[in-house]
């Protein structure tokens, strides 16, 4: 059912719909094997579709976590830069005060 890359929504929808058609033919003709086969293919298609949806949601969440981590790292670098500037200004003021009092 699924491709080598994992579940696929389109493939899942295809098998779900095909299973419905096969089951309907089985219902019309009274062929229990077609009914059973159709139900099974429909269920497998729905499972593949839902698996692909879940995989997409998980991938999206992973991307958001990666983005958040990048933002945290950028913020940390900016904060460190601001602290260095503040320390340098403070040291410069102390140096000026010491020079004036000498």
From TrEMBL:
Residues 39-49 have a biased composition (Basic and acidic residues). Residues 82-93 have a biased composition (Basic residues). Residues 1-14 have a biased composition (Polar residues). InterPro entries: YjbJ_sf. Residues 1-61, 82-102 are annotated as: Disordered. Coiled coil: none annotated. PANTHER family: CHROMOSOME 1, WHOLE GENOME SHOTGUN SEQUENCE (PTHR40460), CSBD-LIKE DOMAIN-CONTAINING PROTEIN (PTHR40460:SF1). This is Mismatched base pair and cruciform DNA recognition protein.
């Amino acid at each position: 059912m699924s491709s080598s890359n994992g579940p696929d929504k389109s493939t899942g929808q295809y098998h779900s719909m095909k299973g419905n058609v096969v089951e309907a033919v089985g219902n019309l003709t009274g062929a229990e094997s077609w009914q059973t086969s159709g139900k099974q293919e429909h269920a497998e298609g729905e499972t593949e579709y839902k698996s692909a949806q879940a995989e997409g949601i998980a991938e999206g969440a992973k991307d958001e976590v990666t983005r958040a981590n990048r933002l945290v790292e950028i913020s940390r670098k900016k904060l460190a830069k601001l602290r260095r500037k503040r320390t340098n200004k403070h040291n410069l003021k102390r140096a000026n005060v010491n020079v004036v009092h000498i």
